[in-house]
User: Fold this.
Amino acid sequence: MKPRQSKKQTNDIELPQRSQSVTLIPPGGGPIPARVAEREADSLLVVVMVPLASLSQSQLEGLVLEFVSPRSRVRLRGNITVEDSDLLRFSELHSVEVLQQREYVRIRAARPVLVICAKDHLQIRSYTVDVSGGGFLLAGPDTLKIGEDIQFQVTIESGGAPITGTGTVVRSDTQGRRAIRFKDISDGNQRRLVRFIFECQRAERRRGLELDDRRGN
Assistant:
């Protein structure tokens, strides 16, 4: 029998946010996409996003919930109650593993960016080449110097508030592109960016599955 986790221990661990995408990993099985429907101090209600056959008791006992926070990849286990065919309640949560990541998950994404140079307040419009939770690759301009600080506003969705913060130019390439590492970004903005990255990954996986299905037919 697993030792019971005290409420203090549960509250000390990092939990995903409500509506955040998570991954369920059963023992011996592939990853299952899911989303947090409800978040309480000591439990999570998770909705499975794909049709799923009933999990056995051993699969439920070994099920791992994985998510990415702004600074790490976290894996949790707990007592699991099946509330519906696609609803799982995790309680008495405890951390299995926390992987600190020097590099965040990175995706290719072209998004409009307004860059404001710190030294002269010059405003420059450009776009991202790729995006991660720790920064982005900027298409230009090649006038930005290594070590220069900037302010940025990245629009990740039409009509939505931009992701704002400050960053530093950390490197350049032969195409004149500039890599920006975040210097100051709010937790809320970073979580929005990480969710955007996950949604893009999920959409890419769906497209890949649809392509495989068409090829199979």
User: Anything to note?
Assistant: The chain has two domains: 7-100, 106-192. The first strand starts at residue 21 and ends at 25. The longest helix spans residues 187-216.
